[in-house]
Amino acid sequence: MASFKNIDFKDQLKVLPETHGVYQFFSVDNKILYVGKAKNLKKRVSSYFKNKHDNRKTRLLSSKINSIKTISLNSEMDAFLLENSLIKKHQPKYNIQLKDDKTYPWICIKNELFPRAFYTRKKLKDGAKYFGPYSSIKLVISLLEMIKENFELRTCDHVLSEEKIGNKEFTTAVDFYIGNCKGCCQGMVSKEDYDKRLKHVKQVLNGNTYEVVKHLKINMGKLSDAYKYEEADAIKKKIESLKKFQAKTAVVDTNIHGLGVLNIDHGITHSFVNCLKVMNGSIVQSKTVQIKRKFDEDSATILSHVLVDNIEDFFIGIISLIVPEKLGISSEINEYIPLRGDKKKLLMISKKNAMVKRQGFEKLEVIKNPELTSLRLLTTIKKDLRLNDLPYHMECFDNSNIQGEFPVAACVVFKDAKPSKKEYRHFNITTVDGPDDFASMEEVVYRRYKRVLEEKKALPQLIIIDGGKGQLSSALKSLTKLKIQNKIAIIGIAKKLEEIYFPGDMYPLYLDKKSETLKVIQLMRNEAHRFGITHHRNKRSKYFTNSELNNIKGLGPKSIQLLLKKFKSVNNLRSVNIEDLNQLIGPHKAKLINQYFSR
Known about the structure:
Layout: E1 2-5, H1 10-14, E2 21-26, E3 32-38, H2 41-50, H3 56-64, E4 67-72, H4 76-90, E5 97-98, E6 106-109, E7 117-120, E8 129-131, H5 137-151, H6 162-166, H7 174-177, H8 191-205, H9 209-225, H10 229-249, E9 259-266, E10 270-279, E11 282-292, H11 299-310, E12 320-322, E13 334-336, H12 341-368, H13 371-384, E14 393-402, E15 405-415, E16 418-419, E17 425-428, H14 437-454, E18 462-466, H15 469-481, E19 489-494, E20 499-501, E21 509-510, H16 516-545, H17 557-567, H18 570-574, H19 578-585, H20 587-598
Parallel strand pairs: 9-12, 12-13, 14-18, 18-19
Antiparallel strand pairs: 1-4, 2-3, 2-4, 5-11, 6-7, 6-8, 9-10, 10-11, 14-15, 15-16, 15-17, 19-20, 20-21
């Protein structure tokens, strides 16, 4: 073990060993801040003091380290196991925390004369054999009932000994008279016979039902050959019961044996890892572990911690491991990333279990704190769009015009991923002639943020432009003129394939059609379009209402709108041939217009 103190670590770091091992960081008051493992202690520990860290928590940890201790080990597996042990013992502030398994049910087989099998939520170091943990108490109860029916283990709580059994100290229970107990306390069961039953029970609990059925079939054959048909029939019923139990739990090919499965699902602050144990094609054990992340740890790091924490317990007896990505903990563990088939199916079952646990956790958190729904959504948007900050304030722009007539634009504002309708704004395009979406977008974005800067209001964290590369480039020009192009993230969304464009990025981003991020962007785009179209219609209606044609008696609003839409202006209408007017609005109204302009 090596130990270093002092804030200046330059000299100490030079002499660190380049071996597998575990390192511990201590604070000024000698409290453990962090425990980590490394393939190369010197390189790993040095990285905390030489590199610039993007992660705020890592920077904070580095600034608080006052002393270092390292322990050299022979292998990475040894490092994993020791790291896990130290984290459990000291629970350092900056390490991820695995939620304790104490709430999970176990099946315990006591270390006693004629051992009992019962369920417990406490796993003690008492020499007993524990199976589990199991995902639900219902599964445990059904297992115990099946064991009671088929293997006739005792259920009483007598403290048995050879002397007490020989002296007939115990009275028989009701179970003895109805056939559910074979009378261990009365000396009516030999220890050899009971141990055989117990061996079968352990095999079943380990998921090895096949071996038990095979053994029972051999015994049934022997009894049948000896003409002991009643006893053979009793064993036949046990075999049928075990086969039914196996059929209920089988999910994949029964040739798949000794398999562990790990998969993960991430929430905002916590990750959820599901563990499955598969024997003879059946999931015999399942549990999901909740982990609070400290440094935005990646999936491989979290999965490795969970695996090592359960390798001597949950995963005992596994031959190979299915994972969503390579962990590389030890060459002794065969890791697979399945692409198809039954093993892929098991990986998806594990993923679903982790997701269900995460969703349940988040629903409870939202009940306690409703603001977490928005926070989770904003975190998702930040991650999907590769933003530096959470987009608490987002704005979206859209242009509206018909062949260049009545050009307008709209800006909608979302706060905490929800519409803030009081802050919606619409614009009349003033500097652009004709249908030019690019120039219109440039004008509107410039006017919007010039005013925001003048009024010293907060800028949004994200701007969304309804349009592709052209509209996005135009908007970016305005931000550059205002010198805020590096202060706001901006993207464009093209309608055809819902492509997301980033400034300076040649290739668009395609988000999953079901993703929450895309749904929010589409909602903002649709809101901007709706708000812009409403303003556009109001502007047209106002123009038509104030038209000189309203002075012509007998000419209604619909006819006026039709005429202006066709001929664009009253001045153009003065020179239109009366035959053209006849075709559009009929001879009577055409005559009224002709007479009006003649005067």
